[in-house]
Amino acid sequence: GGTGGKCYNEAKSISFGQKWGSKVGDVVTCRSSIKTKQIEFFLNGRTQGVAFDNFAPNGRNVFAAVSITATGSRLRLMEKVTPRSKPPMLNNNVQMPNMPMPNIGGMNIIPQPPPPQTVPSQMTNIKYGWDQNLKSPHLAIFPDGVTVTNKGSNDTWQGVVSQMIFSSGRHSFEIHIINDIKTSNQWKYIFGVAPVSFDPKRTAWLGSQNSWGYIGGTGGKCHIQGKSIAYGKRYGGQDRIKCVIDFNKRSIEFFRNDKSQGIAFNNLTGAVRPAVSLTGKGAAVRICNVQ
Fold this sequence. Notes:
Elements: E1 28-33, E2 38-43, E3 46-52, E4 80-81, E5 103-104, E6 107-109, E7 130-135, E8 139-141, E9 147-150, E10 158-162, E11 170-179, E12 189-195, E13 212-215, E14 221-223, E15 240-246, E16 251-256, E17 259-265, E18 272-278, E19 284-288
């Protein structure tokens, strides 16, 4: 992780790929083939190339494995699934919605963010997780509480707000796209903040009901009206969008993969919650790094 290198049979980092692990949310995928004797790694869905071409278990069992050093470090082994796999189970024996899963290097995985589940069969209570009572009907919140997906809404807007409320000072949060889906709606996503009075069951797109949003498909911004105003770069794929709100300056600023897109709004007022709007069936995002 810390060097981006690879190692085999000796404690030496040999130049290989990109560094990882410095930020919450990195996903590392390992794909091995006995037939080709190759081991390939992916970082957040992007191949780092073939690391080894001497993979030959010769009938012996091999296992997924990790090594950790820092006290308090946490990671999760993602579950591999196939098209025949059943959806994960929620509490009360209610199944997760049948939806396309993110595909990384040909391997389907269940998107799950870093916070661990103490009891896998129950919904995790995270203070900044998505609010079950303030979401559109076609959205489903994963058991982790911070990942949400669109079960299918014919490309119409579906929205949800966070349980976290900000009313003073300076704060930030990030929205990570876990599964990017094609949709006939050119805006695709809107990420931003909404006043506490915002009700996704009335209108689900950010920009309505006095909310503020950064639009994925256009790179524009919107507030009060359904119009994309030129602002920053488009986003999608596995982009990370950070939103910084400053009540002292009344400003809202967005970052795309750590690069500022500039101040989007200077009229922040009242208590607000983080919020997202999705259109594509199977699209999935998670909220994290809330400060």
